[in-house]
Specification:
The structure holds 2 protein chains of 2 kinds. Chain A is an alpha/beta fold. Chain A folds into 3 domains: 94 residues, Alpha-Beta Plaits (2-Layer Sandwich); 142 residues, Succinyl-CoA synthetase domains (Rossmann fold, 3-Layer(aba) Sandwich), CATH 3.40.50.261; 191 residues, Rossmann fold (3-Layer(aba) Sandwich), CATH 3.40.50.261. Chain A has 18 helices and 19 strands. Chain B has one domain. Chain B is built from 3 helices and 2 strands, in the order αβαβα. The longest helix of chain B has 15 residues.
Chain lengths: 526, 60
């Protein structure tokens, strides 16, 4: 094996394009390891960790593209790796409309697009704040998708946005729908009378999808970024969004979504809710129910429950906490019976592998105290995945977290990370696999197909030991999404995966199957 | 332009960064422009700091 570096000076490509290209090159025969990236400190560190460093690293700048590869020269030359890279790059460029004029800077783009009113920023975090500042100074609204933006910059930029009456959604804001246009990772949903402000990406996607499925639509969906409701930022963008929706004549009802805010921030939100002339539904996932009720807002027990309550309230119907299933209870019991019967006595463990962080968090909160679940986003520090005893126990992972996305695309963009976790973390002790399948703009072209392939492979592997496994999924998507909800459900069901209409229902079914295993005396599920 | 004014307008988007976001917008018929973005000053920190200082002086 030999290590080589190939450099293209002053050739800039975005990180997702390059990470997907790295994956394609990795599959070439004779390539043991490869990393394609811009010459940033982060990428160079990653290449060093992979043992791909050569002396040429010293000459790289963040404007230079590098291909670092460990290859078996008996099978492939570095020239062949470069040729493959160029071929893939040309192919990916062809699918984009490269003939369009691309101005070289934000200011020239604003000149080229008269009436521009929104700037999407997804450049590397260390460069993002300067671009956002320029956009706000030019009087434009901003959606900041980039992460790794310092909190001090976030505060300064949001203060400026509020001063100017502008949106500054983010950083790390994955989803928004403005004037019916989905931005970044959002689902295709109909327009309507419900406005949403969300501090959590997939949580917001799940609520908008459920509202659509129930037959209503969205006026505006405003993202804030996950840190907005922390004390340091003080909820500046949630307040800005909330007040805008109160003033918006198209919005008749408002839904707020976040993990539990800092108490001082929650109090500010509650005071606005108290004086809101429009009904307010709040899902502060696991938040303070009494405090929400005290200001006349409606608390929720799940993302799906938030959508249900919003729709019923809008229609003037009675509502209560939705704790059940869309299917009749009897049918659910039959499913539980049939699925649990597939398992042998020593199959007791849960493997919940999520691509959406909020969906993973909701799953653990809904499963509650019944189970000790180890996670990379644990509900309490002692349940951190590092503390998993000898690899045995229940596991729930958010595969979109930084530790799993270093140098590779988010699992919603590229299913490879989850495919690998299916291979490494599902074994003969697994009872139930629980997954989310997130459709929509930005997401992989066929996430259901990738999950179905993995489950088929696992079943094949387990069948050698005379075993099977229970697989449960929910699909966050609509029939209007390009991946198509119905097609995705059919794909999953063809692989013997039970598909529920929401994350909350998928989690409840998981709970029932796990409880049934315990009743069977199959072992200690705690 | 306030947020509520934005709600009444056609959305016109400048995209800096991931090209897939631009392609998604374009496929929906949204008026959008992709910036051929690369780090200013070759991405070198000391040069970026200098540029930022110059801009601040210009603004004041």
């Amino acid at each position: 094996m030999t290590i080589h570096t190939s450099i293209k000076k002053n050739a800039y490509y975005d990180s997702v394009t390059l990470m997907l290209l790295s994956r394609q090159l990795q599959e070439l025969a004779g390539v043991e390891d490869v990393l394609v990236g811009m010459g940033t400190e982060l990428n160079l560190d990653l290449a060093r960790d992979l043992g791909l460093e050569t002396g040429e690293f010293d000459t790289l700048t963040p404007n230079d593209l590098f291909i670092a590869a460990k290859i078996d020269e008996a099978q492939i030359s570095m020239k062949a790796v470069e040729d493959a890279f160029n071929a893939y790059l040309n192919k990916s460029a062809e699918s984009d409309s490269d003939e369009d004029y691309q101005p070289p800077s934000l200011s020239s783009a604003i000149q080229a697009l008269p009436g521009a009113n929104m700037v999407l920023v997804s450049v590397p975090g260390q460069y993002a704040a300067a671009e956002v500042e320029d956009a706000l100074d030019a009087g434009l609204h901003v959606m900041l998708f980039s992460d790794n933006v310092p909190v001090e910059d976030e505060l300064r930029l949001k203060q400026k946005a509020v001063e100017k009456g502008l949106l500054m959604m983010g950083p790390d804001c994955g989803t928004a729908i403005i004037n019916g246009i989905p931005l970044c990772f959002a689902n295709a949903v109909r327009r309507g009378k419900i406005g949403v402000v969300g501090a959590s990406g997939t949580g917001t996607q799940e609520v908008t999808v459920q509202i659509h499925k129930l037959g209503e639509g969205l006026s505006q969906v405003i993202g804030t970024g996950g840190r907005d409701l922390k004390e340091q930022i003080g909820g500046l963008m949630m307040i800005q969004g909330f007040e805008s929706l109160i003033a918006d004549p198209e919005t008749e009802l408002i839904v707020l979504i976040s993990k539990p805010p800092d108490p001082s921030v929650a109090e500010k939100i509650y005071q606005i809710a108290k004086s809101s002339p429009k009904p307010v539904v709040i899902d502060f996932i696991g938040g303070d129910r009494k405090a929400i009720e005290a200001v006349g807002a409606i608390p929720c027990i799940s993302l799906e429950d938030a959508a249900q309550k919003a729709v019923k309230l809008l229609r003037g119907q009675e509502y209560e906490d939705f704790t059940g299933f869309s299917l009749p209870e009897e049918q659910i019991e039959q499913i539980v019976e049939k699925e649990a019967a597939k398992l042998k006595g020593d199959q007791t463990e849960l493997r919940a592998l999520f691509t959406g962080g909020t969906l993973a968090d909701e799953a653990m909160k809904l499963l509650g105290d019944h189970y000790e679940i180890y996670s990379n986003i644990p509900l309490s520090p002692e349940m951190a995945i590092e503390n998993l005893p000898e690899g045995r126990g229940h596991i729930c992972l958010d595969l979109g977290e930084d530790e799993f996305t270093r140098g590779r695309p988010h699992p919603m963009i590229d299913p490879q990370t989850r495919t690998e976790f299916f291979e490494s973390h599902v074994d003969e002790k697994t009872a139930v696999i629980l997954v989310d399948v997130v459709l929509g703009f930005g997401s992989y072209k066929d996430p259901a197909g990738a999950v179905a392939d993995s489950v088929r492979e696992i079943r094949q592997r387990l069948s050698n030991q005379g075993k099977d496994v229970v697989a449960i999924a929910s699909v966050c998507g609509t029939e209007l999404d390009r991946q198509d909800l119905n097609k995705s459900i059919t794909t999953l069901e063809a692989a013997g995966i039970i598909v529920l209409p929401s994350n909350a229902q998928a989690v409840r079914l998981t709970d029932k199957v796990m409880q049934r295993i315990m009743e069977k005396g199959a072992g200690d599920v705690r | 332009m306030s947020v509520n004014d934005l709600f009444k307008q056609e959305l016109k988007v400048v995209n800096l960064g991931l090209k897939s976001f631009y392609s998604d917008l374009k496929s929906q018929g949204v008026t959008t422009v992709q910036v051929n973005w690369k780090p200013k000053a070759g991405g070198k920190k000391n040069m970026l700091n200098l540029l930022s200082k110059i801009n601040k002086v210009k603004q004041s």
